[in-house]
Design goal:
This protein is α+β, with helices and mostly antiparallel strands. It has helices at residues 14-31, 38-57, 60-67, 73-86, 122-166, 217-222, 234-249; strands at residues 33-37, 95-100, 110-115, 173-174, 188-191, 196-198, 212-214. The radius of gyration is 44 Å and the shape is rod-shaped. Keywords: Ribonucleoprotein, Ribosomal protein. Residues 136-148 have a biased composition (Basic residues).
């Protein structure tokens, strides 16, 4: 027979152990307290508390689960109708084990296992409520911190995207406004396809559709834009205007 993993087995085999624990649980729910050895009391406690948890649910499936362990229907009825309502406010700890004097004869360590059916005191209820509030506050704080951590990169990305939209070619450049007009302080047009920039003196200034605006020619050149090859400089433009005015006067 294989050795059990959780201490010595009660009885001669697994089936015998299950029957022993079932009988002990039935006696506990029938009399509220029983005297047995400490080993049996410790093995009975998790089974009894599990059955009480089923009884607190109160549905048909839970009743059938309990009947699979306890065969006496009257004891099951008492468990569901009397014991479960008394421990409805408790979140576990439905049993109590008290050690007593050893048994006469074989000197076996004995204990009394009983159901804890008394209602929670006001102090215990307050402590439990405070513990629950502390846990809820800790969960909310952790959730807020995680949300803030997730939101921070998103905000930084949004700010970076906004800055990139406003200054697509770095400092000295600006994207066109919503109506396509020039932002204040950015008089030079830039065409991204041709990589050319045009000042107001350029003959192609009016025909060029501005895809980016620059504050100075240096900023445009730093962004990789070039002036048009046949663009007249300021002196030539002034001489041309003077010649046209003299022809008109003549």
């Amino acid at each position: 027979m294989p050795t059990p993993t959780k201490g010595p087995r009660l009885g001669g085999g697994p089936a015998h152990e299950r029957l022993i624990l079932a009988n002990l649980a039935q006696a506990l729910f029938e009399h509220d307290r029983i005297t047995t050895t400490q080993a049996k009391a410790k093995r009975l406690r998790p089974l009894a508390e599990r059955l009480v948890t089923f009884a607190k649910r109160g549905d048909l499936h839970a009743r059938r689960r309990v009947l699979a362990v306890i065969s006496d229907k009257s004891v099951v009825h008492r468990l569901f109708t009397e014991i479960a309502p008394d421990v409805a406010d408790r979140q576990g700890g439905y049993t109590r084990i008290t050690k007593i004097a050893p048994r006469k004869g074989d000197n076996a360590p004995m204990a009394v296992i009983e159901l804890v059916r008394e209602p929670l005191s006001a102090k215990q209820a307050t402590v439990k409520e405070a513990e629950g509030a502390t846990k809820r506050a800790a969960k909310k704080s952790a959730a807020k911190k995680s949300t803030a951590k997730k939101a921070a990169p998103a905000a930084e990305a949004t700010e970076g995207a906004a800055e990139a939209t406003e200054a697509p070619y770095g400092e000295g450049s600006h994207a066109p406004l919503a109506d396509g007009s020039a932002p204040e302080g950015f008089p030079i047009k830039g065409n991204e396809d041709s990589k050319k920039y045009h000042t107001e003196e350029s003959p192609w200034f009016e025909q060029t559709e501005a895809e980016v605006w620059f504050a100075t020619q240096e900023a445009a050149e730093a962004a990789g834009f070039e002036a048009p090859g046949s663009m007249p400089d300021a002196e030539e433009a002034a001489e041309a205007e003077t010649a046209e005015e003299s022809d008109k006067d003549a």
